[in-house]
């Protein structure tokens, strides 16, 4: 009774040490809004008045106790409680709604206090808000960190024809939607995090094992080459794990480019199996790759993981499998199918609605199909849902066809890093991790550049101050102790404004936005990287800098 668990409390007056009046008073003091009906064998008007004063909604004497009379009393108090709740909600809505009225010549007739506060918050005038709604009945206006929802109607005010404009602050709704996105990502992360360490250790074991085999006395040039290739392939799988975790955990703008969807799904299979656990099997079928799709690979990974997570929840209620099928047509068709209990027509029809979920409170909500659809449509695609009770669920993504791209491949590594007479200049590598400095120094020196290294930003500044000219290019990690790479670049450019800088980071592209930099205009290579990728970035930066000169 001291919680909001029940819709009504029927309380006996005689309860031993504590009587019913005391219990009702305590519930009222706690703010419990459910109505309390005091039941007593003492038909005393003073007791009835005391019950109402203590917060009871009604008093019912046991002398009039009958199922019909008691039922009428309870129904009356329940309905009155619901009516009072609706009145409270309407009052709160009216208090939070701004109202402006204008005459037929767009002159302001009235504005309430809420409208005044909202217009002051966004620094906008009544006339401007009315002009925004010209010809529209409803619209949203974003101003700074505020989102206003506007609704316009023609009516009467003080007996005259007038235009009525209602304003509500939808900022809280927008923030709630954003929190839902982030909680959805956290939900997926939580569900796969338990297996990440296990999988990552297996991958590291494979890398170390192949490298040790390459060093065996009995190893031949052929077997050494084989083991190195296998170590590289396994390391790329490990890198993909961290990349996906970063993509799931950060906010990022959609980046549309061509990628091999078949390759992406193959790489996601271990994660999808981890999502299902022992609830069922997950398989990938359909046309073989490569299948090139135009879109955002990180966004699509989140979408697929969400759909597979939903399917895993479905088969937990009765089912055995989740199947992905990839068909190479125009548009590309990706299907996620499960043999779970399926959905009723009304549930399937509402599944794409915002904030819709069939999961109980306290359980993960996923990203939500409304946000999945938003992500697919952001890639100029479509999504279809097919489900019936007892027949499982099939979600189909229709995606744009992309252009095939040639991969760099590890077999061309020797050719890529062969000395080249066009590669001239001095590079300064700055990273607090010795293995990174060592690998880059050897590789870039082999490619023909003169390379110097620094273990900190301050050491790099000392190197730059020793000579009259700065390095031709600085390659620096962003996250370093004492002084980060962003501040290093700023200090170097105060003396040498034209010095190009290539940033490295293990935190993905979102690290630039956190430093207030434009991700599209600042060169960044994400760790872990391929050496050929770094060399390509360096050549591009140096070529661009020479053209500027």
Please characterize this protein's 3D structure.
This protein is α/β, with parallel strands linked by helices and 549 residues long. The protein is 46% helix and 21% strand. It has a five-stranded antiparallel beta sheet with strand order 5-4-8-7-6, with helices on both faces. Strands 10-12-13-15-14 form a five-stranded mixed beta sheet. It has a five-stranded parallel beta sheet with strand order 17-16-18-19-20, sandwiched between helices. Helix 8 runs parallel beside helix 9. The radius of gyration is 33 Å and the shape is extended. The N and C termini lie far apart (79 Å). About 3% of the residues have low confidence.
Strand content: 15-25%
SS content category:
alpha/beta
Tell me the overall shape: extended
Mean pLDDT: 79
The biggest beta sheet is recorded as:
5 strands, antiparallel
Number of helices: 17
Strand order of the largest sheet: 5-4-8-7-6
Helix content: 40-55%
Give the terminus-to-terminus CA distance.
79 Å
Let me know the number of strands.
Answer: 20
Oligomer: single chain
Poorly predicted runs of 5 or more residues: 361-367, 408-414
Radius of gyration: 33 Å
SSE order and pairing:
Blueprint: E1 9-12, H1 20-29, E2 36-40, H2 45-54, E3 58-61, H3 67-95, E4 97-102, E5 108-111, H4 113-122, H5 126-132, E6 138-143, E7 146-157, E8 160-169, H6 171-214, H7 221-249, E9 257-260, H8 261-276, E10 281-286, E11 292-295, H9 297-316, E12 321-327, E13 332-338, H10 345-350, H11 369-378, E14 382-387, E15 393-399, H12 413-416, E16 426-430, H13 434-446, E17 450-454, H14 457-466, E18 473-477, H15 485-495, E19 501-505, H16 510-514, E20 524-526, H17 531-548
Parallel strand pairs: 1-2, 2-3, 10-12, 16-17, 16-18, 18-19, 19-20
Antiparallel strand pairs: 4-5, 4-8, 6-7, 7-8, 9-11, 12-13, 13-15, 14-15
Helix pairs in contact: 6-7, 6-8, 8-9, 9-11, 14-15
């Amino acid at each position: 009774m001291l919680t909001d668990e029940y819709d009504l409390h029927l309380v006996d007056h005689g309860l031993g040490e504590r009587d019913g009046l005391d219990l009702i008073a305590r519930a009222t003091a706690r703010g419990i809004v459910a109505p309390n009906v005091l039941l007593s064998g003492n038909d005393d008007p003073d007791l009835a008045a005391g019950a109402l004063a203590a917060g009871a909604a009604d008093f019912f004497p046991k002398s009039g106790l009958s199922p019909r009379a008691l039922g009428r009393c309870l129904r009356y108090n329940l309905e009155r409680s619901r009516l009072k709740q609706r009145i409270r909600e309407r009052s709160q809505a009216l208090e939070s709604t701004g109202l402006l009225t204008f005459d037929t010549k767009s002159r302001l007739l009235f504005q309430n206090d809420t409208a005044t506060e909202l217009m002051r918050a966004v620094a906008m005038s009544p006339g401007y808000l009315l002009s925004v709604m010209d010809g529209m009945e409803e619209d949203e206006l974003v101003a700074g960190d505020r989102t206003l929802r506007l609704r316009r109607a023609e009516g009467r005010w003080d007996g005259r024809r007038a235009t009525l404009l209602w304003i509500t602050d939808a900022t809280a709704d927008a923030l709630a939607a954003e929190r839902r996105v982030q909680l959805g990502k956290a939900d997926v992360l939580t569900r796969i995090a338990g297996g990440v360490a296990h999988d990552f250790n297996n991958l590291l074991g494979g890398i170390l094992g192949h490298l040790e085999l390459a060093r065996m006395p009995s190893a031949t040039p052929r077997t050494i080459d084989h083991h190195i290739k296998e170590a590289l392939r396994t390391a790329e799988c490990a890198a993909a794990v961290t990349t996906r975790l970063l993509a799931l955990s950060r906010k990022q703008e959609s980046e549309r480019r061509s990628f091999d969807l078949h390759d992406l799904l193959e790489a996601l299979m271990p994660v999808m199996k981890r999502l299902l656990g022992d609830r069922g099997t997950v398989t990938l079928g359909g046309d073989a790759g490569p299948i090139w799709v135009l879109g955002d690979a990180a966004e699509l990974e989140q979408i697929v993981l969400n759909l597979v997570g939903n399917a895993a929840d479905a088969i937990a209620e009765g089912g055995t499998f989740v199947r992905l099928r990839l068909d190479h047509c125009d548009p590309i068709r990706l299907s996620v199918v499960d043999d779970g209990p399926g959905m009723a027509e009304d549930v399937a029809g509402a599944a794409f609605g915002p904030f819709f979920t069939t999961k109980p409170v306290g359980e993960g909500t996923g990203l939500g199909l409304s946000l999945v659809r938003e992500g697919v449509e952001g890639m100029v695609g479509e999504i279809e849902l097919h489900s019936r009770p007892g027949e499982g669920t099939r979600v189909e993504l229709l995606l744009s066809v992309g252009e095939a791209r040639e991969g760099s491949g590890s077999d061309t590594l020797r050719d890529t890093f062969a000395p080249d007479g066009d590669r001239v200049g001095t590079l300064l590598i700055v990273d607090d991790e010795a293995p990174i400095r060592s690998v880059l120094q050897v590789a870039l020196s082999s490619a023909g550049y003169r390379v110097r290294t620094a273990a900190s930003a301050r050491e790099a500044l000392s190197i730059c101050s020793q000579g009259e000219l700065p390095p031709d290019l600085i390659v620096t990690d962003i996250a370093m102790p004492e002084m980060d790479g962003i501040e290093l670049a700023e200090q170097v450019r105060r003396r040498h404004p034209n010095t190009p800088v290539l940033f490295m980071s293990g935190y993905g592209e979102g690290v630039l936005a956190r430093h207030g930099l434009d991700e599209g205009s600042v060169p960044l290579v994400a760790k872990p990287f391929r050496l050929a990728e770094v060399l390509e970035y360096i050549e591009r930066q140096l070529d661009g800098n020479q053209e500027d000169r």
